[in-house]
Here is the input.
Amino acid sequence: MARIGVFICHCGENISATVDVAKVAEKAGKLSGVAFSVDYKYMCSDPGQTLIIEAIKEHKLTGIVVAACSPRMHEGTFRKAAEKAGINPYFCEMANIREHVSWVHPKSDATTQKALDIVRTMVAKVKKNAALFPIKVPVTKTALVIGGGIAGIQAALDIANAGHQVIMVEKKPSIGGHMSQLSETFPTLDCSQCILTPRMVEVAQHPNITLHTYAEVESVSGFVGNFDVKIKMKAKSVDYKKCTGCGACWQKCPSKKIPDEFNEGMGFRTAIYSPFPQAVPNKPVIDRPNCTYFTKGGKCGLCKKVCPADAINYDAVDEFIDVKVGAIITATGFDLKHADFFPEYGYGKFKDVIDGMQFERLASASGPTAGEIRRPSDGKIPEKIVFVACAGSRDKAKGIEYCSKICCMYTAKHAMLYKHKNHEGKAYVFYMDIRAAGKDYDEFVRRAIEEDEVQYIRGRVSRIYEKNGKLIVKGVDTLMNSEPVNIEADMVVLATAVVANIEAESLAQKLHISYNKHKFFAEAHPKLKPVETNTAGIMLAGACQSAKDIPESVSQASASASKVVGLFSSNELTREPIVAVVNRQAPPNFTSCTGCLLCQEVCPYHAIETEDIKDRGGNLIKRAARVNAGLCQGCGTCVAMCRNKSIDLQGFSNDQMLSEVMALLNS
Amino acid sequence: MSEQFEPKIVAFVCNWCTYAGADLAGTSRTKYATNVSIIRFPCTGRIDFMLLMKAFENGADGIIVSGCHPNDCHYTSGNFHARRRWIVFRSLLDFMGFDTDRITFSWVSAAEGTKWAGLVNEVTEKIREKGPFTEFKKLDYSILEKIENDVVTE
Amino acid sequence: MRIGYYPGCSLEGSSKEYNDSLFAVAEKCGVTLEVIKDWSCCGASAAHNLNHDLALALPARTLALAEKQGLEEIVVPCAACYSRIAGTKNEISRNVAVKAKIEGFIDLKLSADVRILTVFEFLQKYIFPTVDQHIVNKLNQKAACYYGCLYTRPKEIAAVEQIENPMEMDEVIAKAGATPIEWAFKTECCGAGLSVSRTDIVAKLSGKIIEDAADRGAESIVVACPMCHMNLDMRRPEIKKQLKKDINIPVLFITQALGLSMGIPADKLGLNKHYVPTDKVVNCIVKMEA
Here is the structure.
């Protein structure tokens, strides 16, 4: 005999402002099977929960329905309360009358009726609930960090220092990411590589970290605590066990004119190369599509001849390794929007119109111009540079409505660096707003304006064209009565939009994590769960989630690391028992399952096994399906597929769902 | 002024995308019609389409089935199965003369609160225009008794 | 395939040479243009400034008449007419309620399925396939192709593929044996409708356009819009005064340039109707080797 308790929450005024909660409580009390019904201001508060616990005990309730916010908010809270009161927590269901009713409808009879309909639906469901018990699975205490930029490095070090194993996978030949390309970092103007390289070395030498560079994640399966990851180790053509990093090979390599990715196309590198002098690991790889040996059928081979360690191996092939990890952190970072994105600015057409990262390479002491700001076209030092902020960001017409966050700061930095190196030079910044909200950030921008005499002009640039060797920048000064401003510049630096890593989408699909239309990975909750995804066990760190600067990336990385360490803090993970079960009956049936195994075909987690049901003599009676509760994720696809309904989903059983539909439509 | 017909619409949605999207519509206080009530499933792949028929049998005038966008299913492929199921089911319903426009199949992600609200309003108006669902009624079970009696007496 | 034709007011009046040269080119290639019977004004800039319904109704009437005539495609050489008609088709197609309202105003049935071609699309589709056999002259000069604003905005109905750097006219002029130059003022405003009320502004803006073309060695400016033509050609005296430079680069319609290369006589193309003399262009023509 069911004795259900119904608890209607006011949620302050959030629900009671539009729903007549007293009426709902009264009518719910009259539903068949309901032994107790009450309304209260804040169900999730301590007194609220005490109210529920006392009611369960006093009225000997067998199940409860809490009509309040979304179960995605407080299902856990109320299930714990039910458990405290001595009943199985899975006899607690929530009726969502806030997000789905009170917040989206005006105060009216229809709104109150809808709330009551939903309460009635959940009461009917709860009457069909069964006691469920958590499933325990082991946890592999190894973390996978995808991406070796500053965020990945920070996360890996934090987890490794906590005593756990970390596998780091980086697709480039060296870790370091975009931070290694920077000249100085705001707001301190610290040398970027000086603060980064010690961390890179720490990662490489840490006993708990296994570093795989020039490698990519090929596939991921499994679930939290038990992921199976296949990693593709791209063929480096160099045996790292033998290579000493002496550099003889790249000094002798005859293919010297390959556009250098590290220098953003402003310099050249060889076919066998290490991306930059402080690379970790400081051993080269061969870029096969641009290597004479591979493109011209075995010609050349110089590097192999000069290598003193005999480390060159032209026959190396891509290898795959399988690893088991308990948690994954994505730290794949960002890219700058490139190429024919700004025809009105001549980006890609005029050599002296460059983007922020290219300017960093010019300013960098280890860059293609040894730190001197020079025009890419003729190598002269520019006397006038125009910086265009918001080049593409905050612009619906360009498809990027968001703010790229870091450009106001790095534009000020660039202008300052230019002025520090060229005291007589003139720097202009065309801006819309100045976003310098971090610590010491606004002071940094003021310094650029007041001490380094960078001229800030509030207005956008409509067109840039070349005339007589100069770049004519047509802009406007909106603070000066919208006067058109034309500047004859020697160089233009565009603060182009920050976009997600080009392979973000395919990685997200491999991991089954969500992403938004700009391919930035989706956090579980924008305010309260910024480093987790909706997929248990997979965390986010850094710019792969949204544009952010270095301090934020580092903070987020440490936050994800702490989530992982928390996950690893016990040997077992308790899993929700929302899993599928194939029925078993007494002989001679044993089960109504006929062994068609259609469920096995459709299960995305390969969680359905075949069980041979045998008699005492060992003879096969029938073959039936059986669910591995450790693997099942509770999607229920098998249940909908089963032709004779032999498999059912705990927590969302056929009985439960049917009773919901019937109760919703029949008052 | 005659009473406007208020259709009863049931939405079968998945927990991870559309339910969350509806939550987002709520957090954003987006206002929409009251005619749609949600029944939560872990995944659209779980939805047995006979439940849809039960809904119509018990007074629903319209139905929405909504889940994660293709490729974004929390369980990888549940929404693909739901989609295939719908395609087959829809052609069967068409054959039976059922107005398949009363069932709307859609994808609403957890970030698409506004889309959910728009969908609810759009479907409510569509069903309102069609009027109440009266084509198939509950079986008159007394017929069964009569048949049974006939068989027994034979 | 029947091709409909909407001249608009300018092509029958101030820019008659654009109309005549287009017909001359079409005739040479054996293509017939069918004028839409009883066509009326498209509303240009006056209508959409005063009354939104009128702004839609006027072009809608043209579309409805074209449909009534059984035409599936129409050519609209004037940039302003094109912008109004294509814009109306776009708005009506997306909004059932608006379409019904406009149908009520014009008292004609309208499906808005008629395809609207710019002069470039028309030349590409119907003239290019057979034009090579008719080209007997090379224009042998540097030409600056000026697109103006209406072909490149708004984005939803833009008539060119790359709105910041259109190339459609450049392709046509290259066919005619001229060298299209790269220059910076392809889509900058000429002053448009301020031609009468603020001629000084037109002088300044159109002056910049002409100056840049001249600086880059252009020997002619090619346009596909009667308004652009008027500002760059008829307002030349004011421009010269403003610039304090004596720039005499002639302004040709794209169809005139193509016509010249096809051996059509200059007077049949209306080249004598321009303010800035065009003899230099005509004299630059070089007969091609057989």
Observations:
- Chain B has a mean pLDDT of 90.
- The longest strand of chain B covers residues 9-14.
